[in-house]
Design brief:
The protein is α+β, with helices and mostly antiparallel strands and about 100 residues long. Helix content is about 40%, strand content about 25%.
């Protein structure tokens, strides 16, 4: 089982993973611009693997939480189940 990592503020009532659009609108209305801050702190570049990019964004989230002078940010997690599919012809289950 994999996990997804995100960030939120202590006052945002919307779920970052399940209701990102409302989470994002609330964040902008409050003037936090969290996604912009993560983009500035992360050192991603073309040619990075998806895994490397995910790790770099997580590093940027950790850094933002660390340097947050207002102590409003928190790192959040969501367990993500791997997709399994059943091959009807072979009767086996495989990862997609």
């Amino acid at each position: 089982m994999e996990r997804k990592v995100g960030i939120t503020t202590i006052d945002n009532p919307f779920d970052y993973f399940e209701d990102f659009n409302n989470w994002f609108l609330f964040d902008i209305e409050k003037g936090y611009y969290t996604c912009n801050k993560i983009a500035r702190l992360s050192k991603t570049f073309e040619g990075m693997s998806e895994k490397e990019e995910i790790e770099e964004v997580e590093r940027a989230i950790d850094r933002l939480v660390e340097i947050d002078p207002l102590d409003i940010y928190k790192k959040i997690y969501k367990k993500h189940k791997e997709n399994k599919s059943k091959d009807i012809n072979k009767g086996t289950i495989s990862d997609d």
